[in-house]
Amino acid sequence: MAASLLVFFLTLKMFKLWLTLNLPISLQNWNTSTKSSCPTSSMSLIKSLTEAELRIREIMEKLDQQIPLRSFTHVNTTTSAAHSITTILNPQVTYCRGDRLDILLEVRDHLGRRKEYGGDFLRARMSSPSLKAGASGKVTDFNNGTYLVSFTLFWEGQVSLSVLLIHPSEGASALWRARKDVHDIIIFKGKFVNGTSQVLSECSLTLHSSAELCKYLFGGEHEVFYCVKPQHMPCEALTHVSTRNQKTSYLTAKEKSLFHMSKVGVEIMKDLKHIEVFQCNKNENVKEKCRIGMKIPFPGGYMLQERWITTFCNQSQLDTMKINGCLKGKLIYLLGDSTLRQWIEYLPNVVKTLRFFDLHGTGSFPKRLLLDAQRHTQIQWKKHSYPFITIHLYSVTDDGYIPLEIDRVLGDQNTVIVITFGHHFRPFPIDIFIRRAISIRKAIERLFLRSPATKVIIKTENIREMPIESEWFDDFHGHIQYLTMKDIFKDLNVGIIDAWDMTIAYNAYFLHPPDVVIKNQIDMFLNYIC
Ligand SMILES: *[C@@H]1O[C@H](CO)[C@@H](O)[C@H](O)[C@H]1NC(C)=O
Ligand SMILES: *[C@@H]1O[C@H](CO)[C@@H](O)[C@H](O)[C@H]1NC(C)=O
Ligand SMILES: *[C@@H]1O[C@H](CO)[C@@H](O)[C@H](O)[C@H]1NC(C)=O
Ligand SMILES: *[C@@H]1O[C@H](CO)[C@@H](O)[C@H](O)[C@H]1NC(C)=O
Ligand SMILES: *[C@@H]1O[C@H](CO)[C@@H](O)[C@H](O)[C@H]1NC(C)=O
């Protein structure tokens, strides 16, 4: 056993070495500008796969196993919230703050028959509206039609429990299948400028066209943006891009019936009354101060009186003086989408001395810069480059492809990078998201080699509106990305701000969470860096 494992690892090592050695040759041999020269023999196909591509395949295969195809003949055989049964395990007469409460969920179909497989997309939350309190519950899928839903009773008072069936497993499976086939759901238009003339041209992340193409390599050979080359315009003349959403669905009529408004996010725990949680004089465990690199559990905190309280570290209450002192001399890079842009818009409320500096940006979502010249604090936000979805023309000249932005940072103990991406990737094949996450991870590793003191914080994707008009932006896709991202970044020395967990706790079903959530994300951020 041990010997065969050793042989396996040696083979793997040699294979990787062989890959590294062969890589430069294979790239030379593979002339990307011609279609006929694609490698055909399996040998050259293996050669063309970089380690990153192998990792992407590995992750995708793992996801396929987690979300198997579930065909169904009738809605009757899909999961029904109304027929599913929940039981509190080991019910107590009195619950104490800090206790765990477990619920066994047995899912049934619309005819009341037990289901024998899992995969339902569920969301568990506990709340006390009068205390402005909320927290996520943890769902464990046993893949046999039963689930364990665990809540930690973080606060005292009257607590309601909720488990929502967001999509039955058959619906989740249909979304996953559809995402594999997805193409041309988001149509990109590029604006090219030559002197006074402007031309709009079709662009895409995967363009199958016989026309002459402009090819923009923004992450080596594997991340490419294409535009049909306009006449009398060089490829470099691309200045702005906008997008349009096709109203196409890849779901069958039968599958679509699972996504009717009345069927999305249905409460399963309808019969449970409140439970009463008491203080019971239990001592709280002493917690370490929050710092970067801590492993964060799920749930990693809860909302109480609208304040986010972490469960895995001791947050400090930072006053203005502390914050001002902490931000002195700091260079902060916010790289991502508009959910991080919300931070830079909100920050002047937290730090009154920060002023926006006009960067002469054009189009929507230009680069943003906040300065406190006296304290030498600089905070900038840049959008994360393709794919970026908006109907308004946005400038591509100040785009920030995250791996490249990280490579440009020298880094020191006063440099902070915050990263978020996800929402704009939902309507594209998952490998585009995975490839970007791996590229970002590699850039962070390079950064830590030259500057281990630089602080890197990853903000995960948040939940959004439900139900949603277009299946492509569904939280199911976001959840897969969220789990994948946590997995890819798990053993890096980075801080995590779990926006998914937080927005469930805050019941914030918005693409752009309300200010109270942003405020608490920034508080968490300051706790990591101060
Ligand atoms: C790639 O193929 C094109 C078209 O056949 C040719 O013009 C070009 O020189 C080739 N480039 C390389 C690097 O072989
Ligand atoms: C679905 O269930 C309903 C209610 O039990 C029943 O009337 C109907 O015939 C069933 N349809 C199919 C196709 O099984
Ligand atoms: C489902 O799986 C869990 C965990 O393996 C097991 O404890 C439980 O008995 C199973 N339930 C059924 C109905 O098979
Ligand atoms: C720009 O447009 C002019 C007028 O159509 C054309 O002559 C020129 O070649 C164009 N420039 C480039 C670099 O394509
Ligand atoms: C958190 O830190 C403060 C100040 O250092 C300390 O008084 C408090 O007991 C700590 N709380 C926990 C739960 O560790």
Account of the 3D structure:
The chain has 530 residues and is α+β, with helices and mostly antiparallel strands. It has helices spanning 2-29, 42-48, 51-66, 169-181, 253-256, 320-327, 338-350, 402-407, 430-450, 475-488, 499-505, 515-529, and strands at residues 79-88, 95-96, 100-109, 121-128, 133-136, 138-141, 146-152, 157-167, 186-194, 197-204, 213-217, 224-228, 238-245, 266-267, 275-278, 301-304, 307-310, 331-336, 355-356, 368-372, 377-383, 394-395, 415-419, 455-459, 495-497. The strands form five sheets. A seven-stranded mixed beta sheet has the order 19-20-21-18-23-24-25. The protein is globular, with a radius of gyration of 25 Å. One 2-acetamido-2-deoxy-beta-D-glucopyranose (NAG) binds at residues 284, 286-287, 314.
